What we know:
The structure is a homodimer.
Chain A (H helix, E strand, L loop, with lengths): L11 H10 L4 H15 L5 E4 L2 H12 L11 E5 L8 E2 L8 E2 L5 H8 L3 E6 L33 H8 L5 E6 L6 H5 L3 E4 L21 E6 L2 H11 L27 E6 L10 H16 L2 E6 L2 H12 L3 H12 L8 H9 L5 H21 L5 E5 L7 H6 L1 H8 L4 H5 L3 E9 L5 E8 L4 H15 L15
Parallel strand pairs in A: 2-5, 2-6, 9-10, 9-11
Antiparallel strand pairs in A: 1-5, 3-4, 6-8, 7-8, 7-12, 11-13, 12-13
Helix pairs in contact in A: 2-3, 9-12, 10-11
Amino acid sequence: VAWQSEDGSLDLKTLRNAYESGSTSPCEVIDAVYDRIAKRGEDHVWIHLVPREDALAQAAALEKTGKTAPLWGIPCAIKDNIDVPGLPSTSALPPLRKIAARTGRTIQRILDAGAIVVGKTNMDQLAVGLVGVRSPYGIARNAFNGDFIPGGSSSGSGVAVGAGLVSFAFGNDAAGSGRVPAAFNNVVGIKPTPGIISNTSVCGRGTAKSLETLSIFALTVTDGMEILRLVAGYDREDWFSKREADSCDLAVRAGNWPFRFAIPRPSQMQFFGDSEAERLFQENVRQLEKLGGKVQEIEYTPFEDAQRMLYEGPFLAERQASVEDLVRGHEAALHPVTREILETSMHWSAVDAYRAIHKLADLRRIARNLLAGCDVMAVPTTPTIYTIAEVEADPIRLNARLGTYTNFVNLMEMCAVAVPAGFREDGMPLGLTVLGEPFKDSVAASVAARLQSANAFPLGATKTPFPAHW
Amino acid sequence: VAWQSEDGSLDLKTLRNAYESGSTSPCEVIDAVYDRIAKRGEDHVWIHLVPREDALAQAAALEKTGKTAPLWGIPCAIKDNIDVPGLPSTSALPPLRKIAARTGRTIQRILDAGAIVVGKTNMDQLAVGLVGVRSPYGIARNAFNGDFIPGGSSSGSGVAVGAGLVSFAFGNDAAGSGRVPAAFNNVVGIKPTPGIISNTSVCGRGTAKSLETLSIFALTVTDGMEILRLVAGYDREDWFSKREADSCDLAVRAGNWPFRFAIPRPSQMQFFGDSEAERLFQENVRQLEKLGGKVQEIEYTPFEDAQRMLYEGPFLAERQASVEDLVRGHEAALHPVTREILETSMHWSAVDAYRAIHKLADLRRIARNLLAGCDVMAVPTTPTIYTIAEVEADPIRLNARLGTYTNFVNLMEMCAVAVPAGFREDGMPLGLTVLGEPFKDSVAASVAARLQSANAFPLGATKTPFPAHW
Lengths: 470, 470
């Protein structure tokens, strides 16, 4: 059976086919998962790995139930700033370590649906960063080449899916944390419209609440959207939950319908010298055109202005306001880069904050008008990828560059589906992100799914070809 | 004909009946309006009154068209921080005076519908205040007793409707500016869910954008909601416009349907010694019960916490950020109280601002859970009313008291319909406000309309009884 090959894909369809045919069982799958994890050795993907016996016991218990639960026997991973009952959370700041007594609705739904959590994944400390190297738990080893960064902040979740260790993983995403690791590990990152899924599973107040959403890593767009549909919905317990969550279309539509997609004017795009990244973006634009997409080059300045605001303006103060209660007394344990970033937020005034909020509101308005004639927008997920050595030599500037095409998305309240875009000559994967206006998650995902199907790259770092069964 | 009596009501139904029967014409109505205005003498209601000849010319032009336009021949007034093409706007800061070349969608729709703008109304400078005494253009004379404040900031608009000078008026409302003048002039104030009507008609960036909405003063709830339906809708040009605006229910439903309404626990209510205000609130609660309402006393602390945040916390910084461009260079012309209030916003940090935004988000969540079993909430519009002399002796503290039941409403993204609640022994009117959760404008208005109909107080300061034709 396909999944049983050494690094066969654990995508939902493959696993379910195996379960339905009776050719395997959850215990067998979990055993294989732990074999794969063991085989990778010290890969720093996990801050806490559930003991094999515990996961097997859970699988055995599941086997005594019917197969009706929607995620029956599906192995998954959860970022370490998201609570799972009975497991520790740290947000990659060791003194915060605490066993969670409960979780919020989103993760509870995954558990209730029969998914098996294998472990809590490594991350940039306090979810600040797009690189995956700002953790006292080491650097999660990129699924393709350990010299390169895994991407962050949801580094371990991206690698866990890309390396074929689990079927899906949860991360979260304020500036791009759910998309950049997807690009660098050749998987799909679903970052829904903020407010569609409840954030109450995030531990403490570990990230910038109003600009953040939980996100899903999966091997295919259809898998990721299935998970999203399972967890989406308005949650009265979540400060920033949106009522539209209950009625928002999240279906992935097949078929050859025509669509219009915006791209930034080529003269306004930046790849920081990575001509391979530029080539991959252009190839994907052509692929979208072949699929019936009509391209429209649009003015990129307002998006760029918004993306620069995230880390150069008072929005950082929201991070500080969110984490200060958690961090108080543990300042000495902060990663020096994280500390430096949080400190820069301190000198802004409340009037500065509202100036920025107003400027952003205006940019959002301008952006929506620019996108008025388009169904979606396509951007590179990142302009390039860096090695660990490069990032460690220039940690803040290179991190900021990686956010070129991700930072503005939550500020604009948009949704995003990051899909594999192909490989550079050196074998490293990069991504393309399909962006949608607020609550257009279905449209963005449907275009992304068609692109993934047309490209048909192997899934993650496994050798499994894109499933013909899609 | 009823409207032609000295101070007969200009409510929509009365005027339209007169137009349809052919017993009067727009020119005759406009003439009568200017006679009434002239009769009030120097009442400081208008910052700019359209010359009678101009309004008559507009009426004459209308008479040459069919009567099909929805507001054909209806006289109205517009607050002076809202642009009307060809008329000056000042926001009650004289050096800002500028003739507007155009307006935004909301007011344009009123003009296109055949309404006749009689003038631009007085207001608390820069819309900061709930009193109506902070204007270099004098104090709009309360429709009942000139010793008392008219309420603000939309003072002139409230008086213009209450004194029977126009059929409806536009104001705007961040902290209560569209409700307090309604209470003090015995009229209806419709403050929709923020984002339902476009704010682009507001000149410059004269108020706290994200916490503000245009509002409507009218003689009856049905009149006000008709105007609201005419102007509501998503506007891509408005930073804070909401997409739900296009689908939001704004109908006023008659009938004796049962409903549940929340009121604050009596022990948590404040009337600052005004036993008459307390009596009126209790009478209205009993009236709502007679109408089929089941009362539920709820914990008021989260609402009170939110209302205190508006003027005691960093939210004031949004005001400063909104007006600083307008005010720059004109600081000397600021009303001393306005200057003092804006200056207090300066010492807050951006981190303070986000702490407040987060705290508010949590209060909003708690409030929604408290209101979960209720259709609407009922509060006094204000805890009392003050004389001009009292407010001038203690301008900031008494102003803050007036916001006891209004300040939190936009912070909570709720909608509000303020209706007359009856009269104190000294003859001064007070109000009751029916509050609804976001986008429940129809429910709030329907309950408010039933209350107004059951109370059947005379309209405004006119002697016209509540119309039997409702």
